[in-house]
UniProtKB/TrEMBL annotation:
One of its GO terms (molecular function) is acid-amino acid ligase activity. GO terms for cellular component: cytoplasm. Residues 381-493 form the GH3 C-terminal domain. Residues 296-365 form the GH3 middle domain. It comes from the Bacteria. It comes from Candidatus Sphingobacterium stercoripullorum. InterPro entries: GH3, GH3_C, GH3_M. This is GH3 auxin-responsive promoter family protein.
């Protein structure tokens, strides 16, 4: 195993030079991919509709092709699901990622081409490992196995050779042999659609293995970890897996989960790396352990545009190219990809923290925010304020959601209503509420202005949710496991009304 570990580490390190090249020449790499994508799709139905053969510049592309959302491409997706090909992309599309980035009843099916699998999603996974090996040359990662807690996958009802499922399940089902060799447990257990049954089986099987790495959404990994400790009677995961050294995570901000993982894995040498891998593509990864910023990955078959958040509702919004972005501003991410998504708005917002090379942080969602009173509160603000309040009160938050309290007819100010499920609750909830409010005012000047003398916004209202509240709510919607997650913020009371009854049951 030691020889195998050295061989894998050497192979992964070879990629570092290529990463350094796109960091040095980012605009050239993006321009090359723009022209390559346009040329590849010339003969598709979409390419003919917008006459891709005559597109030579980005300006022509932006003028000719409007920004798309899922409703715009859904007719094409429906036809692909039924077997039609060469619509958005020239190669056959047989896989569709069922988007669970939202807990709404309506599902989205994002096309996943062979190119997207190999050149984007799998390349991102390999790069994550390559960067880890580069940053920690004495690692023993490949002496053991990895536990990847993914979702479920099934054959859809339209075609016998057309499949859909969570992106994680699609990736697991199509893993190359060498990656499958280093993973545990087997496919049947990993892709079990019954999440509670799967968690129990994964725990029973993996406690017998030498696990060196974990991967997946923090929420569900915590559920798995607690099941393992329950079965083994151990106090932390290192007593079960003494060689555990790496956890790669994504899907939600890691800030609310840091303290929980420190308790589950009490080691200063444990390495945490974040990745930004959505159904639509793999966009970024954390290349430095001492910084939470993500490196924008520029050679994965994706061309990026950036739409200033303040212009998102313009009649004809104007996007910026990579060389036009500024530090500290929130941009909606617009992508064109090697799976046939063209000028597609994925619904995420990012904020650049560095321009040489391009590093960023995920700041929220274009639809997950609160701006009823002009406070422009985004998920990044909420996560940071929660983190500060937890630190000051020695508490840890498991999950939360928040929405508006509208102005009352009697003239009372509006406000924000929070449902918070604690793993370690604060001894003084009123102090926590004051610190949360203080943290929000510190990170968001618009919120601070609206809170002035309680004129527009009153202090937050907080409901402490009993343990398991959000789990029960997600279960009631059939949304356990995979990439499913609790919506942090909403501009209306839809989620609050749906979750509040679970507090009383």
């Amino acid at each position: 195993m030691v020889i195998l570990n050295s061989l894998f580490s050497w192979f992964m390190k070879k990629r570092i030079h290529q990463i350094e090249l796109f960091m040095k020449y980012p605009h050239d790499v993006q321009e090359e991919w723009f022209h390559a994508l346009i040329a590849s799709a010339e003969a598709t139905e979409w390419g003919k509709q917008y006459d891709y053969k005559s597109i030579y510049t980005l300006e022509q592309f932006k003028e000719r092709v409007p920004i798309q959302n899922y409703e715009d491409i859904k007719p094409y997706v429906d036809r692909m699901i039924k077997g039609e090909q060469n619509l958005l992309w020239p190669s056959d599309i047989k896989w569709f990622a069922k988007s669970s980035g939202t807990t709404s009843e309506r599902s989205k099916f994002i096309p996943v081409s062979e190119e997207a699998l190999e050149e984007c999603h799998y390349q991102g996974g390999k790069d994550m490992v390559a960067i880890y090996c580069h940053n920690r040359p004495d690692n023993k990662l490949f002496t053991g196995k990895s536990v990847v807690l993914g979702g479920s996958s099934q054959i859809n009802s339209f075609m016998s050779d057309s499949y859909y499922g969570d992106l994680s399940s699609i990736l697991i089902r199509n893993l190359p042999f060498w990656a499958e060799f280093k993973r545990t447990p087997n496919l049947e257990v990993t892709l079990n659609p019954n999440f509670e049954e799967k968690i129990n089986d994964v725990a029973k099987i993996t406690i017998q293995e030498n696990v060196t790495s974990l991967a997946g959404v923090p929420t569900w990994n915590i559920v798995m970890a607690k099941k393992i400790l329950e079965l083994t009677g151990k106090s932390n995961l290192l007593e079960v897996w003494p060689n555990l050294e790496l956890y790669t995570h994504g899907g939600v901000s890691f800030k609310p989960y840091v303290e929980q993982f420190k308790k589950l894995i009490p080691s200063d040498s444990m390495y945490y790396l974040e990745n930004y891998n959505a159904s639509e593509g793999y966009f970024g990864l954390q290349d430095r352990a001492d910084s939470q910023d993500l490196l924008l990955m520029l050679d994965y078959g994706i061309y990026y545009e950036f739409l200033p958040l303040e212009n998102i509702n313009d009649e004809k919004p104007q996007t910026l190219s990579l060389d036009q972005v500024e530090l500290g501003k929130n941009y909606a991410l617009i992508i064109s990809t090697n799976a046939g998504l063209w000028r597609y708005c994925i619904g995420d917002t990012i904020r650049f923290t560095n321009l040489h090379p391009y590093r960023f942080q995920i700041s929220g969602r274009t639809k997950h925010f609160i701006n009823v009173f002009g406070e422009e509160l985004i998920v990044d603000n909420a996560d940071e304020a929660i983190r500060k309040a937890c630190k000051e009160t020695s508490s840890t938050v498991k999950d939360y959601t928040a929405g508006p309290i509208y102005f009352q007819e009697n003239g009372d100010a509006g406000g924000h209503e929070w449902i918070i499920e604690f793993d370690t609750p604060p001894k003084d909830i009123e102090l926590f509420k004051k610190l949360l409010d203080k943290g929000l005012r510190e990170v968001n000047s618009d919120y601070d202005a609206k809170r002035y003398k309680d004129m527009a916004l009153a202090a937050p209202t907080i409901h402490i949710a009993p343990n398991g509240t959000f789990y029960k709510w997600l279960k009631s919607k059939g949304k356990l496991g995979g990439q499913n997650k609790v919506p942090r913020l909403s501009n209306d009371r839809t989620y609050l009304k749906a979750i509040l009854p679970f507090i009383k049951t």
